[in-house]
Amino acid sequence: MTHEEEYIESLYPSDPQLEYVKETLRELGVHDISVAPGYGRLLTLLVRLCGAKHALEIGALGGYSGICIARGLVEGGSLCSLELEPEYANLAKRNLELAGLGEKAEFRTGEALERMKELQQEGRRFDFIFIDADKGNYPDYLEMAIALSNSGGVIAADNLFLRGKTFKETSQGRSATRVRLFNQRIAADPRLECAVLPAFDGMAIARVK
Fold first, then answer.
1. Residue 90 has pLDDT above 80, yes or no
2. Would the pLDDT of 101 be above 80?
3. What would the mean pLDDT of 146-153 be, rounded to a whole number?
């Protein structure tokens, strides 16, 4: 973290539920790529501000962002979490249950684009969607997220800087090139109002018109 980010984190008390998620990932030897704590708090705030009842998360890992999103949902709200790996989905499910949020969460495993198409076929719509999965599919996730959003819904996406790779012309791997395309699209899409936050690893926040 930068000095600025360290200072901001020092202002807040520790969060035992979220710290436990990180602990479970360490115990399993899983690289912790959970959303930054500051952005976790932002997710909760965004969900509350838009009054979201139904939220969709693309990428569960250990349940860190899922807890943050579920905390902000209105009473009777629900979180649908998509995760490629059954092991991570089960871990996230357990961690949300331990946080007292298990009744809000539904988990679907497998390729996220396929699960999103299923949700579309089922007629599901969401007030808040968080994209934090494989970066190579970010442009496709964005298109599906717009299709699955209610008017006035919010779409957020993490890791838009790829720890600096996004800015380097020499970085021409699939993740870097696809995230650049995602950034261009979310900034210019006439169906959206969007801002990109430059802290941590970069996050886009967009409102669907």
1. yes
2. yes
3. 98
Domain limits for position 72 = 3-208
Whether 53 and 74 have beta carbons less than 8 Å apart is answered as yes
Specify burial of residue 188 (Cβ count, 10 A radius: 0-12, 13-18, 19+): exposed
Task: Report whether pLDDT(169) > 90.
Answer: no
In CATH, what number is assigned to the domain containing residue 154? 3.40.50.150
Q: Are 88 and 24 in contact (CB under 8 A)?
A: no
E-assigned strand segments in the chain: 54-58, 78-83, 105-109, 126-131, 149-158, 192-197, 203-208
- Cα 137 to Cα 146: distance, rounded to the nearest angstrom: 14
Q: Which helix (H) or strand (E) holds 200?
A: none
Residue type, 43: L
Q: How many domains does the chain have?
A: 1
- DSSP letter string over 42-97? HHHHHHHHTT-SEEEEE--TTSHHHHHHHHHSPTT-EEEEEES-HHHHHHHHHHHH
Confidence of residue 176 (pLDDT cuts 50, 70, 90): very high
User: By percentage, how much of the chain surpasses pLDDT 70?
Assistant: 100
E-assigned strand segments in 110-174: 126-131, 149-158
pLDDT above 80 for 1: no
DSSP at 35: P
Give SS3 for 181. helix
Is pTM beyond 0.70? Reply is yes
